[in-house]
């Protein structure tokens, strides 16, 4: 409206407005545009072409190793400050012990604890050491974040006005990731018992090992293709009870190998994600146990179904053998024998269908679990809370898969 003020982000947008306006006070805007052009030339700024949207320059991020790949203390350590307690009878400081410190941070998978001592006793400076692995580094970062979120990080400790005691008299602990300077200060009076450490690049110690673990997971796809080829070359079961039983055992062994490999891969994946999902482990296990019970029930029904088919085949073979002992078979007996043989073939096909469905189920479940794991690993690094939703999604899909094969099994049971 009249008297309103328009705001522009810099001289270039303002110059564009002055040059392109055609509705009112055109001459005044053109004169103003010339003044702006002269001012831009005097400042050395590029004019650009008005109307093309080039009102600034974009600058990409530079690969500064100190930012993208800094030196870190290895193994990962967190400095805990204000751990001394009081003066003893000899006027020397005593403080927190190793066991107390370990128990205090047991939820962060601390490997060991050390304290700094000097001529006056306990110096009030302690260090908790984590596993020399990416998981240990993430645990150390979690602990540092806990301190920082509680306003007890490095900046708070360096503040002259920091709080040393709670109103009740308990000391307030502060913590932060250890640096090289921190380690030199810690080892100042340690003598031969200095805490061993080194400096390593973040990519070398953490990023690259995590990337390698992801690459190793890709090998599971090769395993899946190999198993699929083995399935394609498997011959059709022979229509006799002895061959059905023998090949059934072979197929059961193959299925068990697939299950075992899937279980081993699941355990490896679980180790990778342990540092991300500690808070959700119990709830996730509750979801997993539900589908595990359903899967166990399905396997039990499969075993019972296969046993029934084998027993039926044995009965039919015995009956067929009894008919065959009569050398002078009449027409009705020939028909009866043919009918028995036809039913033996049908029972064999049913067993083959059960085995094929079991193989398909294990293959689909393996693919489903691995795809789910990959999606979850990429997402959980920044949003821990979504982990539970991923598990719920997985269990829902597994339940649907179980329901699909349960319906097929029930339909096959009706056919038999």
Return Rg in Å. 37 Å
| C-alpha end-to-end distance | 83 Å
Provide the β-strand percentage band. 5-15%
Range of helix content: 55-70%
C-alpha geometry: flat
Largest sheet: 4 strands, antiparallel
Instruction: Give the class from helix and strand content and strand pairing.
Output: alpha+beta
Number of strands: 8
Describe how the helices and strands are arranged.
Elements: H1 11-20, H2 26-43, H3 65-68, E1 71-74, E2 77-81, E3 84-87, E4 93-95, H4 98-104, E5 112-118, E6 121-129, H5 134-149, H6 154-158, E7 174-177, H7 180-186, E8 198-201, H8 202-217, H9 219-232, H10 241-273, H11 281-324, H12 331-380, H13 387-415
Antiparallel strand pairs: 1-8, 2-6, 2-7, 3-4, 5-6
Helix pairs in contact: 1-2, 9-12, 10-12, 11-12, 11-13, 12-13
Summarize the structure.
The protein has 416 residues and is of the alpha+beta class.
Explain this structure to me?
The chain is of the alpha+beta class. It is 61% helix and 10% strand. The chain has helices spanning 11-20, 26-43, 65-68, 98-104, 134-149, 154-158, 180-186, 202-217, 219-232, 241-273, 281-324, 331-380, 387-415; strands spanning 71-74, 77-81, 84-87, 93-95, 112-118, 121-129, 174-177, 198-201. Strands 5-6-2-7 form a four-stranded antiparallel sheet. It has a two-stranded antiparallel ribbon with strand order 1-8. It has a two-stranded antiparallel ribbon with strand order 3-4.
């Amino acid at each position: 409206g009249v008297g309103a003020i328009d705001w522009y982000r810099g001289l270039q947008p303002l110059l564009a407005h002055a040059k392109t306006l055609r509705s009112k006070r055109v001459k005044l805007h053109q004169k103003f545009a010339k003044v702006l052009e002269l001012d831009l030339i005097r400042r050395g700024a590029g004019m650009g072409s008005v109307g093309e949207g080039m009102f600034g320059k974009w600058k990409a991020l530079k690969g500064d190793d100190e930012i993208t790949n800094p030196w870190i203390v290895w193994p990962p350590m967190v400095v805990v400050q204000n751990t001394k307690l009081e003066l003893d009878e000899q006027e020397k400081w005593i403080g927190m012990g190793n066991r107390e410190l370990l128990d205090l941070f047991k939820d962060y998978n601390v490997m060991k604890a050390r304290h700094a001592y000097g001529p006056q006793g306990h110096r009030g400076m302690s260090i908790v050491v984590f596993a020399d692995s990416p998981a240990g580094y993430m645990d150390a970062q979690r602990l540092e974040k806990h301190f920082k979120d509680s306003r007890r990080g490095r900046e708070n400790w360096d503040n002259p006005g920091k709080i040393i005691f709670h109103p009740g008299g308990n000391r307030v602990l502060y913590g932060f990731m250890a640096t090289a300077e921190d380690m030199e200060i810690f080892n100042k009076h340690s003598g031969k018992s200095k805490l061993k450490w080194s400096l390593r690049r973040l990519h070398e110690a953490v990023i690259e090992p995590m990337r390698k673990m992801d690459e190793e997971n890709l090998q599971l796809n090769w395993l899946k293709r190999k198993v699929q080829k083995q399935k394609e070359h498997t011959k059709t079961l022979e229509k006799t009870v002895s061959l059905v039983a023998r090949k059934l055992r072979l197929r059961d062994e193959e299925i068990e190998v697939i299950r075992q490999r899937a279980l081993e891969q699941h355990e490896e994946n679980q180790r990778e994600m342990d540092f991300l999902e500690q808070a959700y482990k119990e709830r996730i296990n509750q979801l997993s146990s539900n589908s595990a019970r359903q899967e166990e029930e399905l396997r039990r029904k499969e075993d019972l179904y296969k046993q029934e088919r084998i027993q039926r085949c044995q009965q039919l073979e015995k009956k067929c053998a009894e008919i065959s002992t009569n050398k002078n078979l009449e027409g009705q007996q020939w028909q009866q024998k043919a009918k028995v043989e036809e039913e033996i073939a049908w029972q064999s096909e049913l067993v083959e269908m059960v085995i094929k469905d079991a193989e398909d189920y294990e293959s689909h479940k393996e693919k489903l679990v691995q795809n789910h794991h990959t999606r979850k690993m990429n997402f959980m690094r920044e949003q821990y809370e979504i982990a539970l939703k991923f598990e719920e999604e997985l269990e829902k899909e597994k339940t649907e898969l179980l329901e699909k094969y349960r319906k097929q099994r029930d339909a096959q049971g009706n056919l038999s």
